[in-house]
Inverse folding.
């Protein structure tokens, strides 16, 4: 996938002139069209790797603000499938990274759609890969379960020794290089998290929260949460201990609500789950309701959007419109925003990510104040 200047400007949220200036100042190597086709003009030809390298340079040069205290933890979750939950997790990760933050996406949904959108094969083994023409690098070997299950076992035994797999140091994938969003992928074995949480001694819902804290002290080879400004969990769309543990670790919960089949019950269930966390652990992640599948010309959808006004204090100030392009992300193994950076769908997620960016900065400042008190 390659881009011309206008597409890169759209993804980075800056002008063409500024992109040119950043290219020169950063030293990022950008190919020219006439290098591969002498008949072409010497136009800049970017790819996802160079795009994110420029975004990283913006960050290191101080051109963008970053959270004072991180990482900020976000979960995408609602008890209903087909709401664009995974699309929201992936697109938000891509746009926040493009806007200058360091993002880790953790896929804890056994369907592993986020993993597949980012170019990995959750259903194949390493032995099967050559038969399908798939690179061994695209095979999922480790998931959150590779860390969390041994961590819980060690806690249950009061042992400081983690029995980690030999490949776990390579668990985190980097589909667009070091400068792009990172991924802790999913496959069928991520389901091992659920029974491990059931068998955990003590506060089971806090195990993911504790695991992230442990990673900050260097206790998890290959996974240091301090390397990231933002960690996004793509949760399964069902009530589970796995989802509850992710919610308990979160500062924000993004609830994508599909406007063409809006269910008050799904939101009510989410509110109920969060009230339990607040009652039991004094944890209160902020809910952000993101309306999806919006079509202004359909009266029923407009009525449902108005119905959401009951939750106006929790509503994002933007919507994600219906688009036939979203399903193609899964089959093409590439996020829509990196396929069509100038599309309306990409622009809408860029607006949402910008809104979320400001909230992330505020939350980081709030956490920093609490640490200093």
């Amino acid at each position: 996938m390659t881009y011309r200047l206008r597409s890169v400007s759209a993804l980075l949220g800056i002008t063409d002139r500024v992109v040119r200036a950043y290219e020169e100042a950063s030293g990022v190597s950008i190919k020219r069209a006439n290098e591969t086709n002498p008949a072409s003009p010497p136009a800049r030809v970017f790819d996802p790797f160079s795009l994110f390298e420029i975004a990283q340079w913006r960050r290191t040069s101080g051109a963008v603000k970053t959270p004072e205290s991180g990482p900020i933890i976000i979960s995408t979750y609602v008890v209903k499938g087909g709401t664009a939950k995974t699309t929201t997790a992936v697109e938000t990760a891509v746009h926040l990274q493009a806007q200058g933050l360091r993002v880790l996406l953790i896929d804890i949904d056994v369907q592993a759609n986020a993993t597949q959108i980012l170019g990995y094969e959750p259903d194949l083994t390493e032995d099967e890969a050559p038969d399908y023409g798939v690179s061994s690098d695209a095979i999922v070997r480790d998931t959150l379960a590779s860390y969390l299950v041994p961590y819980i076992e060690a806690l249950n035994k009061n042992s400081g020794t983690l029995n980690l797999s030999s490949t776990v140091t390579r668990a985190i994938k980097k589909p667009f290089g070091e400068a792009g969003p990172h991924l802790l992928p999913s496959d069928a074995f991520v389901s091992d998290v659920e029974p491990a949480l059931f068998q955990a001694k003590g506060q089971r819902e806090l195990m993911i929260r504790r695991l992230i804290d442990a990673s900050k002290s260097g206790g998890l080879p290959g996974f240091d949460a301090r390397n990231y400004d933002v960690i996004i969990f793509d949760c399964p769309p069902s009530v589970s201990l796995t989802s509850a543990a992710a919610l308990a670790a979160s500062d924000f919960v993004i609830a994508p609500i599909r406007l063409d089949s809006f269910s008050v019950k799904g939101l009510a269930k989410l509110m109920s789950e969060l009230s339990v966390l607040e009652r039991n652990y004094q944890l209160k992640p902020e809910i952000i309701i993101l309306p999806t599948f919006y079509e202004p010309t359909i009266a029923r959808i407009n009525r449902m959007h108005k119905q959401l006004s009951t939750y106006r204090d929790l509503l994002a100030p933007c919507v994600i419109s219906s688009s036939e392009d979203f399903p193609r992300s899964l089959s093409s193994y590439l996020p829509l925003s990196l396929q069509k950076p100038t599309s309306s769908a990409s622009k809408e997620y860029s607006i949402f990510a910008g809104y979320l960016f400001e909230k992330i900065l505020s939350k980081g400042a709030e956490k920093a104040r609490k640490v200093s008190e």
The first strand starts at residue 31 and ends at 32. DSSP finds 15 helices and nine strands in the chain. Residues 271 and 354 are 25 Å apart (CA to CA).
